[in-house]
Amino acid sequence: MKTIHLESIDSTNSYLKRNYKELSNFTWVTSEIQTHGKGRMNKTWIGSKDALMCSTIINHEITTSNLSLYPLLAAVSLHKVLSKYINHLMIKWPNDIYLKDKKLAGILCESIIEANQVHALIIGFGVNLNQKSFNDELKDIATSLYQYTNQTYDKELILNNLKNQLTIDLNAYIQNPLNTIDYCNNYHYLN
Ligand code: BTN
């Protein structure tokens, strides 16, 4: 899997959307800074160097009928990776990761569809890792791994874990889709 490391970009999702024709399946891109990070529902996603911001592109064997499984899989994989560092993480529908009623990570999936043909799906992950604090707007709703453990985390290591885990989970899903759904049900956050 090719990984492109950038120092600064508007949004890693937007980068993949602009370049999808030239990029191979499961190319990953990460950036230290995003100037126009995007969240779900047209919201801005504010990330800093202390967060892991990365996206991947899937452009093989993807159809309008299997499109909806990927956001779920992405949440399952991210939940598994982060659960190596901290317990009690939950998956909040559709694909946020929550820690004790605060958001630890979000996922933004965007697809490029023309004439009912899916050209690409882009999955972007924003993970709060090493932030010591958040601004007034976020402090009551967001948290980071650092805030819970007082430790700092290696972004590269977590990215590598995520790359591997997503590949494993995709294969597992193909073998038996029920495992993924059971996993989600076990960690589903209700509020
Ligand atoms: C959400 O919680 O609403 C989704 C947040 C997704 C943020 C990530 S950061 C990397 C990728 N690039 C973006 O512009 N957004 C996603």
Describe the fold and architecture.
By secondary structure, the protein is of the alpha+beta class. The chain has a single domain, classed as BirA Bifunctional Protein, domain 2 (2-Layer Sandwich). The chain is built from five helices and seven strands. The protein has a seven-stranded mixed beta sheet with strand order 1-2-3-7-6-5-4, with helices on both faces. A hairpin with a 2-residue loop joins strand 5 and strand 6. The mean pLDDT is 94. The protein binds biotin. Biotin (BTN) binds next to helix 1, strand 3, strand 6 and strand 7.
Please summarize what this structure is.
The chain has 191 residues and is α+β, with helices and mostly antiparallel strands.
Would you spell out the secondary-structure blueprint of this structure?
Blueprint: E1 3-9, H1 12-19, E2 28-34, E3 51-58, H2 69-82, E4 89-92, E5 96-99, E6 102-114, E7 117-128, H3 145-149, H4 155-175, H5 177-186
Parallel strand pairs: 1-2
Antiparallel strand pairs: 2-3, 3-7, 4-5, 5-6, 6-7
Helix pairs in contact: 2-4, 2-5, 4-5
The chain binds biotin.
Number of domains: 1
- Spans with pLDDT under 50 lasting ≥5 residues? none
CATH class: Alpha Beta
CATH topology: BirA Bifunctional Protein, domain 2
CATH architecture: 2-Layer Sandwich
Return Rg in Å: 16 Å
Q: What can be said about the biggest beta sheet?
A: 7 strands, mixed
Q: What proportion strand?
A: 25-35%
Give average pLDDT, whole number.
94
How would you name the oligomeric state of the polypeptide chains in this document?
Answer: single chain
> Would you list the SSEs in sequence order as H and E?
EHEEHEEEEHHH
Shape: globular
Please tally the β strands and state the result.
7
The rounded distance between the terminal residues' Cα atoms is 37 Å
Structural class: alpha+beta
Bound molecules: biotin
CATH 4th-level superfamily: Bira Bifunctional Protein, Domain 2
Q: Helix content range of the residues, please?
A: 25-40%
Number of helices: 5
| Strand order across the largest sheet | 1-2-3-7-6-5-4
